[in-house]
Amino acid sequence: MLTETHAPPPGANADWTVDQDWAHYTAEEHGVWDTLFARQAKLLPGRASDAYLRGLDVLKLSKPGIPDFAELSERLMALTGWQVVAVPGLVPDDVFFDHMANRRFVAGNFIRRSDQLDYLEEPDVFHDVFGHVPMLADPVFADYLEAYGRGGQRALGLDALKYLGRLYWYTVEFGLIAEPQGLRIYGAGIVSSFSESRFALDDPSPNRIAFDLARVMRTEYRIDDFQQNYFVIPSFDALLKATVETDFAPLYDVLKAQDDIAVAAIVEGDAVLTRGTQDYARGKAA
Ligand code: PHE
Ligand code: FE
User: Fold this and answer.
1) How confident is the model at residue 4 (pLDDT cuts 50, 70, 90)?
2) Is residue 244 in contact with ligand 1, taking CB distance under 6 Å?
3) DSSP label at 7?
4) Domains in the chain, number
Protein backbone atom coordinates (compact mmCIF):
# COMPACT_ATOMS: atom_id res chain seq x y z
CA MET A 1 0.00 0.00 0.00
CA LEU A 2 3.01 2.28 0.04
CA THR A 3 4.73 2.46 -3.33
CA GLU A 4 5.31 5.78 -5.02
CA THR A 5 5.64 4.89 -8.70
CA HIS A 6 2.58 4.74 -10.82
CA ALA A 7 2.92 2.55 -13.84
CA PRO A 8 1.69 -0.98 -13.28
CA PRO A 9 4.43 -3.59 -13.73
CA PRO A 10 4.79 -5.25 -17.14
CA GLY A 11 2.03 -7.77 -17.73
CA ALA A 12 -0.36 -6.23 -15.20
CA ASN A 13 -3.62 -4.51 -16.12
CA ALA A 14 -4.07 -0.74 -15.78
CA ASP A 15 -5.68 -1.28 -12.36
CA TRP A 16 -2.62 -3.33 -11.32
CA THR A 17 -4.50 -6.64 -11.27
CA VAL A 18 -3.19 -9.78 -12.92
CA ASP A 19 -4.75 -13.11 -13.74
CA GLN A 20 -4.15 -15.33 -10.73
CA ASP A 21 -3.41 -18.17 -13.15
CA TRP A 22 -4.17 -20.77 -10.54
CA ALA A 23 -2.75 -23.57 -12.71
CA HIS A 24 0.77 -22.11 -12.42
CA TYR A 25 1.23 -22.96 -8.74
CA THR A 26 3.56 -25.87 -8.10
CA ALA A 27 2.81 -28.76 -5.77
CA GLU A 28 5.37 -27.33 -3.39
CA GLU A 29 3.60 -23.97 -3.34
CA HIS A 30 0.26 -25.61 -2.56
CA GLY A 31 2.10 -27.54 0.13
CA VAL A 32 3.28 -24.31 1.76
CA TRP A 33 -0.33 -23.14 1.98
CA ASP A 34 -1.41 -26.46 3.48
CA THR A 35 1.38 -26.37 6.08
CA LEU A 36 0.58 -22.81 7.08
CA PHE A 37 -3.13 -23.53 7.08
CA ALA A 38 -2.82 -26.58 9.32
CA ARG A 39 -0.64 -24.73 11.80
CA GLN A 40 -3.00 -21.75 12.12
CA ALA A 41 -6.24 -23.71 11.99
CA LYS A 42 -5.13 -25.63 15.07
CA LEU A 43 -4.28 -22.46 16.94
CA LEU A 44 -7.24 -20.24 16.14
CA PRO A 45 -10.32 -21.81 17.76
CA GLY A 46 -10.71 -19.99 21.08
CA ARG A 47 -8.36 -17.25 19.88
CA ALA A 48 -9.84 -15.83 16.69
CA SER A 49 -13.09 -13.89 16.68
CA ASP A 50 -16.29 -15.68 15.97
CA ALA A 51 -16.75 -13.71 12.72
CA TYR A 52 -13.32 -14.75 11.51
CA LEU A 53 -13.85 -18.44 12.25
CA ARG A 54 -17.25 -18.36 10.58
CA GLY A 55 -15.70 -16.78 7.49
CA LEU A 56 -13.01 -19.44 7.32
CA ASP A 57 -15.73 -22.05 7.42
CA VAL A 58 -18.29 -20.62 5.00
CA LEU A 59 -15.63 -19.75 2.44
CA LYS A 60 -14.31 -23.32 2.59
CA LEU A 61 -10.75 -22.16 3.00
CA SER A 62 -9.78 -25.50 4.49
CA LYS A 63 -9.94 -27.04 1.04
CA PRO A 64 -6.34 -28.16 0.29
CA GLY A 65 -4.09 -25.92 -1.75
CA ILE A 66 -3.89 -22.21 -2.50
CA PRO A 67 -7.45 -21.00 -3.04
CA ASP A 68 -8.64 -20.26 -6.56
CA PHE A 69 -9.69 -16.59 -6.44
CA ALA A 70 -12.48 -17.10 -8.98
CA GLU A 71 -14.13 -19.76 -6.81
CA LEU A 72 -13.49 -17.78 -3.63
CA SER A 73 -14.92 -14.61 -5.15
CA GLU A 74 -18.06 -16.45 -6.16
CA ARG A 75 -18.71 -17.52 -2.57
CA LEU A 76 -17.80 -14.12 -1.19
CA MET A 77 -19.88 -12.26 -3.75
CA ALA A 78 -22.95 -14.24 -2.72
CA LEU A 79 -22.35 -13.41 0.96
CA THR A 80 -21.29 -9.76 0.99
CA GLY A 81 -20.66 -8.63 -2.58
CA TRP A 82 -16.86 -8.67 -2.25
CA GLN A 83 -14.36 -10.17 -4.70
CA VAL A 84 -10.72 -11.13 -4.41
CA VAL A 85 -8.44 -9.93 -7.22
CA ALA A 86 -4.80 -10.88 -7.77
CA VAL A 87 -1.94 -8.38 -7.81
CA PRO A 88 1.77 -9.06 -8.19
CA GLY A 89 2.72 -7.25 -4.96
CA LEU A 90 2.16 -3.95 -3.20
CA VAL A 91 0.09 -1.43 -5.14
CA PRO A 92 -0.06 2.39 -4.88
CA ASP A 93 -2.40 3.82 -2.27
CA ASP A 94 -4.94 5.25 -4.70
CA VAL A 95 -5.17 1.93 -6.55
CA PHE A 96 -5.60 0.06 -3.27
CA PHE A 97 -8.36 2.42 -2.12
CA ASP A 98 -10.15 2.34 -5.45
CA HIS A 99 -10.38 -1.45 -5.37
CA MET A 100 -11.51 -1.43 -1.77
CA ALA A 101 -14.15 1.24 -2.29
CA ASN A 102 -15.56 -1.06 -4.98
CA ARG A 103 -15.47 -4.18 -2.83
CA ARG A 104 -12.46 -5.71 -4.49
CA PHE A 105 -9.83 -7.01 -2.15
CA VAL A 106 -6.35 -7.08 -3.69
CA ALA A 107 -4.34 -10.16 -2.80
CA GLY A 108 -0.75 -11.02 -3.65
CA ASN A 109 -0.74 -14.05 -5.93
CA PHE A 110 2.65 -15.42 -4.81
CA ILE A 111 3.40 -17.52 -1.74
CA ARG A 112 6.36 -17.45 0.64
CA ARG A 113 9.03 -20.12 0.33
CA SER A 114 8.85 -23.34 2.30
CA ASP A 115 12.08 -22.49 4.14
CA GLN A 116 10.69 -19.09 5.15
CA LEU A 117 7.34 -19.89 6.70
CA ASP A 118 7.55 -17.02 9.16
CA TYR A 119 9.33 -14.55 6.96
CA LEU A 120 7.52 -12.05 4.77
CA GLU A 121 8.87 -9.11 2.87
CA GLU A 122 5.50 -8.21 1.39
CA PRO A 123 2.06 -9.68 1.96
CA ASP A 124 1.68 -13.00 0.13
CA VAL A 125 -1.42 -15.03 -0.68
CA PHE A 126 -1.42 -16.66 2.74
CA HIS A 127 -1.44 -13.38 4.62
CA ASP A 128 -3.90 -11.76 2.23
CA VAL A 129 -6.34 -14.62 1.81
CA PHE A 130 -6.09 -16.56 5.07
CA GLY A 131 -5.61 -13.37 7.08
CA HIS A 132 -8.01 -10.92 5.49
CA VAL A 133 -10.62 -12.67 3.41
CA PRO A 134 -12.55 -14.55 6.15
CA MET A 135 -13.48 -11.20 7.73
CA LEU A 136 -14.93 -10.06 4.40
CA ALA A 137 -17.63 -12.71 4.79
CA ASP A 138 -18.94 -10.72 7.76
CA PRO A 139 -21.49 -8.16 6.53
CA VAL A 140 -20.52 -5.49 9.04
CA PHE A 141 -16.81 -5.83 8.50
CA ALA A 142 -17.42 -5.92 4.74
CA ASP A 143 -19.13 -2.53 5.02
CA TYR A 144 -16.32 -1.21 7.18
CA LEU A 145 -13.66 -2.04 4.60
CA GLU A 146 -15.62 -0.52 1.77
CA ALA A 147 -16.10 2.66 3.80
CA TYR A 148 -12.40 2.57 4.60
CA GLY A 149 -11.59 2.53 0.89
CA ARG A 150 -13.68 5.62 0.33
CA GLY A 151 -12.15 7.20 3.42
CA GLY A 152 -8.75 6.50 1.90
CA GLN A 153 -9.60 8.32 -1.30
CA ARG A 154 -10.71 11.25 0.79
CA ALA A 155 -7.65 11.14 3.07
CA LEU A 156 -5.35 11.32 0.04
CA GLY A 157 -6.84 14.71 -0.82
CA LEU A 158 -6.61 15.87 2.78
CA ASP A 159 -2.97 14.85 3.22
CA ALA A 160 -4.00 12.65 6.11
CA LEU A 161 -2.94 9.17 5.10
CA LYS A 162 -0.68 8.88 8.12
CA TYR A 163 -3.71 8.99 10.41
CA LEU A 164 -5.99 6.82 8.34
CA GLY A 165 -3.22 4.27 7.86
CA ARG A 166 -2.94 3.87 11.63
CA LEU A 167 -6.63 3.06 11.81
CA TYR A 168 -6.06 0.25 9.30
CA TRP A 169 -3.05 -0.98 11.18
CA TYR A 170 -4.72 -1.15 14.58
CA THR A 171 -8.00 -2.62 13.32
CA VAL A 172 -7.75 -4.49 10.01
CA GLU A 173 -4.21 -5.74 10.65
CA PHE A 174 -3.78 -5.94 14.43
CA GLY A 175 -7.22 -5.53 15.97
CA LEU A 176 -8.58 -7.35 19.02
CA ILE A 177 -12.24 -7.69 19.95
CA ALA A 178 -13.86 -8.28 23.34
CA GLU A 179 -16.24 -11.20 22.98
CA PRO A 180 -18.41 -12.71 25.73
CA GLN A 181 -15.88 -15.56 26.19
CA GLY A 182 -12.90 -13.20 26.33
CA LEU A 183 -10.51 -11.28 24.10
CA ARG A 184 -10.21 -12.52 20.55
CA ILE A 185 -8.05 -11.60 17.57
CA TYR A 186 -9.45 -10.45 14.24
CA GLY A 187 -6.58 -8.50 12.64
CA ALA A 188 -5.10 -10.22 9.60
CA GLY A 189 -1.53 -9.58 10.71
CA ILE A 190 -2.23 -11.56 13.87
CA VAL A 191 -4.45 -14.39 12.64
CA SER A 192 -1.97 -15.21 9.87
CA SER A 193 1.03 -15.24 12.24
CA PHE A 194 1.97 -18.36 14.19
CA SER A 195 3.81 -16.43 16.90
CA GLU A 196 1.75 -13.25 17.13
CA SER A 197 -1.56 -15.11 17.37
CA ARG A 198 -0.34 -16.29 20.75
CA PHE A 199 1.63 -13.20 21.76
CA ALA A 200 -1.28 -10.80 21.15
CA LEU A 201 -3.53 -12.60 23.61
CA ASP A 202 -1.24 -14.40 26.06
CA ASP A 203 1.91 -12.40 26.50
CA PRO A 204 2.13 -10.03 29.49
CA SER A 205 4.29 -7.59 27.52
CA PRO A 206 1.93 -5.50 25.33
CA ASN A 207 -0.72 -3.03 26.46
CA ARG A 208 -4.29 -3.84 25.54
CA ILE A 209 -6.31 -0.65 25.40
CA ALA A 210 -9.97 0.02 24.59
CA PHE A 211 -10.35 1.33 21.04
CA ASP A 212 -10.76 5.08 20.72
CA LEU A 213 -10.72 6.48 17.19
CA ALA A 214 -8.69 9.64 17.76
CA ARG A 215 -6.31 7.87 20.13
CA VAL A 216 -5.63 5.14 17.59
CA MET A 217 -5.00 7.65 14.83
CA ARG A 218 -2.40 9.42 16.97
CA THR A 219 -0.50 6.23 17.73
CA GLU A 220 2.72 5.28 15.97
CA TYR A 221 3.31 1.64 15.07
CA ARG A 222 6.12 -0.69 14.19
CA ILE A 223 6.07 -2.88 11.16
CA ASP A 224 9.04 -5.12 11.94
CA ASP A 225 8.10 -6.76 15.22
CA PHE A 226 5.23 -7.71 17.55
CA GLN A 227 3.02 -4.79 18.53
CA GLN A 228 3.49 -3.22 21.93
CA ASN A 229 -0.11 -2.10 22.08
CA TYR A 230 -3.29 -3.61 20.78
CA PHE A 231 -6.61 -1.80 20.63
CA VAL A 232 -9.76 -3.65 21.59
CA ILE A 233 -13.13 -2.98 19.97
CA PRO A 234 -16.37 -3.96 21.74
CA SER A 235 -18.00 -5.13 18.49
CA PHE A 236 -17.77 -4.69 14.72
CA ASP A 237 -20.97 -2.65 14.85
CA ALA A 238 -19.30 -0.23 17.24
CA LEU A 239 -16.24 0.03 14.99
CA LEU A 240 -18.37 0.69 11.93
CA LYS A 241 -20.48 3.26 13.74
CA ALA A 242 -17.50 5.11 15.22
CA THR A 243 -15.82 5.40 11.84
CA VAL A 244 -18.74 5.94 9.49
CA GLU A 245 -20.53 8.46 11.69
CA THR A 246 -17.44 10.60 12.23
CA ASP A 247 -16.41 13.16 9.66
CA PHE A 248 -12.66 12.65 9.56
CA ALA A 249 -11.80 16.00 7.92
CA PRO A 250 -12.08 18.10 11.09
CA LEU A 251 -10.57 15.25 13.10
CA TYR A 252 -7.49 15.24 10.85
CA ASP A 253 -7.07 18.97 11.53
CA VAL A 254 -7.16 18.36 15.26
CA LEU A 255 -4.67 15.50 14.97
CA LYS A 256 -2.27 17.53 12.85
CA ALA A 257 -2.00 20.03 15.71
CA GLN A 258 -1.28 17.32 18.29
CA ASP A 259 1.78 15.21 19.01
CA ASP A 260 1.84 11.59 17.96
CA ILE A 261 1.71 8.98 20.71
CA ALA A 262 4.72 6.69 20.95
CA VAL A 263 4.42 2.92 20.67
CA ALA A 264 3.84 1.39 24.13
CA ALA A 265 2.88 4.71 25.77
CA ILE A 266 -0.24 4.91 27.92
CA VAL A 267 -1.88 8.32 27.97
CA GLU A 268 -4.52 10.11 30.00
CA GLY A 269 -7.98 8.94 29.05
CA ASP A 270 -6.90 5.43 28.01
CA ALA A 271 -9.17 2.65 29.19
CA VAL A 272 -6.45 0.08 29.80
CA LEU A 273 -7.59 -3.53 29.79
CA THR A 274 -4.17 -4.97 30.50
CA ARG A 275 -1.16 -2.82 31.23
CA GLY A 276 1.83 -4.40 29.56
CA THR A 277 5.13 -5.16 31.24
CA GLN A 278 6.97 -4.23 28.01
CA ASP A 279 9.37 -7.04 28.91
CA TYR A 280 9.39 -8.27 25.34
CA ALA A 281 10.48 -4.88 23.97
CA ARG A 282 13.03 -4.42 26.76
CA GLY A 283 14.50 -7.85 26.12
CA LYS A 284 15.00 -6.90 22.49
CA ALA A 285 16.67 -3.61 23.34
CA ALA A 286 19.06 -5.20 25.85
N1 PHE B 1 -15.89 8.68 8.03
C2 PHE B 1 -14.62 8.70 7.34
C3 PHE B 1 -14.35 10.07 6.70
O4 PHE B 1 -15.08 11.00 6.90
C5 PHE B 1 -14.53 7.58 6.29
C6 PHE B 1 -14.23 6.25 6.90
C7 PHE B 1 -15.22 5.34 7.24
C8 PHE B 1 -12.90 5.89 7.14
C9 PHE B 1 -14.90 4.12 7.79
C10 PHE B 1 -12.60 4.67 7.66
C11 PHE B 1 -13.59 3.76 7.99
O12 PHE B 1 -13.37 10.22 6.01
FE1 FE C 1 -2.60 -7.18 5.42
Assistant:
1) low
2) yes
3) S
4) 1
Confidence (pTM): 0.96
98-136 pLDDT tens trace: 999 999 999 999 999 999 999 788 899 999 999 999 999
Q: What pLDDT score does 59 carry?
A: 97
In whole angstroms, give the CA distance from residue 45 to residue 101.
31
Q: How far apart are CA 124 and CA 133, in angstroms?
A: 13
Q: What is the CATH number of the domain that holds 160?
A: 1.10.800.10
Domain that holds residue 12: 2-285
Number of Cβ atoms within 10 Å of the Cβ of 113: 12
Distance of alpha carbon 162 from alpha carbon 165, whole angstroms: 5
Separation of 268 CA from ligand 2 center, angstroms?
Answer: 30
Q: Which ligand is nearest to the CA of 132?
A: 2
- Residue 121 burial by Cβ neighbours in a 10 Å radius (0-12, 13-18, 19+): exposed
